[in-house]
Design brief:
The protein has 74 residues and is of the alpha+beta class. The chain is built from two helices and four strands. The strands form two sheets. Strands 1-2 form a two-stranded antiparallel sheet. The protein binds zinc ion.
Length: 74
């Protein structure tokens, strides 16, 4: 039985406004375009060229990006 590359589903999203890190579970097959910081309430949207807020502000890229780009170095 072969397993594909390990996909990380938990990310730490760091708010660019207040630097608050929040651990979040990333849904597979969904691209999240809005994320509200639980600390300061800022509504984050992806930066140009990024597919979702996790790719812009998370410490790992989203599951779909991981699948196309390969595993992220630890
Ligand atoms: Zn914030």
């Amino acid at each position: 039985m072969t397993m594909g590359p390990k996909i990380r589903l938990i990310t730490t999203v760091t708010c660019p406004v207040c630097d608050f890190p929040a651990q979040e579970a990333m849904p597979v097959g969904e691209s999240i375009q809005y994320y509200q910081c639980m600390e300061c309430g800022s509504l984050l949207t992806p930066e140009p060229g990024d597919c979702c807020v996790f790719c812009s502000y998370g410490d790992v890229r989203c599951p779909d990006a991981q699948r196309t780009e390969g595993p992220v170095p630890e």
